Amino acid sequence: MPQPYSLLFCHAAQVLTLAGGPSDKPLTGADLSEWRIIEHGYVACLGDTIAAVGPMGELDAGRIGPETRIVDVSGRVLMPGLVECHTHLVFGGNRADEFQRKLQGESYLDILASGGGILSTVRKTRAATDEELLQSALHHLEGFRRYGITTLEAKSGYGLDAETELRLVHVAQEAGRRQPVRVVPTFLGAHVPGPEYKGRPAEYLDMLAADVLPQLDPAAVPFVDIFCEEGAFSVADSRRYLQRARELGFGLKIHAEQLHELGGCQMAAGLGAVSVDHCDYLTPAGAAEVAAAGQGRTVAVLLPLVPLYLRQEKYAPGRQFIEAGLPVALSTDFNPGSCPSKNLWLALQVACLKMGLTPREALAAVTLNAAWAIGQQASCGSLEPGKRADLLVLHVPDYRELPYWLGENPVAQVVIGGELL
Ligand code: NIG
Ligand code: FE
User: Which residues contact 106 (CB under 8 A, 6 or more apart)?
Assistant: First the structure.
């Protein structure tokens, strides 16, 4: 006798399964929009796992028992929990003062070169206690959860010395243990050269590779990231550092082609990076090179709220990336400088408006492809039996309303690991 379901959502107007594409690589091209939607459907959970998904007509009544909690979601959309695949979760203070400067016309790189930007957050982060950083991270995680984020990547990168960078990783891990959103830590010690290494970026990277990376376990901190940009690290230095990280067993990520076209995305894809992030200056021809070098597995993580917030006109040409065969994901890039927003729905909407994604493509980009971008595709990103029961009940009856209600949070209920929160 199969066990009765523990939790059953029934009569959903639409179930966005995100299922139906290839299972061995992220979605791109037509697959990005051809995943399955079930009209008038159900999702059944057994403990922390999805047990069955289908149209109401196929629901096995024999698996409904007295212990089954039944939730009628008539007139609502069910979908997988959102996967937020690029955040700088842990930092001290904020940069509301610099926002004023930006509004008066100063550029992001000018503010950084004057000792502000990332470096001003580094000063505040170094001065904060572990407990202060933890409380701030928990506050932000709570905000993400209300937007329906059930898995979230969290980068270090505001310590820029060995000790503080390790503290930031530990705070992210502790924050993951203290609340239900799953946290996947990434090491971004190579955000910009630490202030003690001004003008000596290669020496700073050597220090990280020799003193810090060996102290991290790739099983617990799966990715190493670097910011490849003018004022941060060159393509050549980034390549050497990422190669060393790869030798130590880490997966690779890069912030590249954010403000200039340097070739960082192609370089990282050639090293097998799991994602290349920002890509606003990546051309369609460059995207085809990334798709080829990454063998269809390197995901371009697009961050549409960043050019919006930095008052830049240039947005990654997402539509052309998809046509070039490059898998895309979307994220907020939540951080105190270039995007202090946790509203991944708004990122999805701006991606439709400014990057040419269709609503279906954008939904795949905040679920299954975002899961691929952080190596979590086996456990989340779609509603399929065997995956973790992370799902959302939305206030709307049709997915086409999701990019339409600009700035709104459509989340009615969040389920993480089979727990209705
Ligand atoms: O992803 N581009 C580099 N790093 C962050 C911004 C960090 C900051 O300004 O504090 C980003 O946009
Ligand atoms: Fe970032």
Answer: none
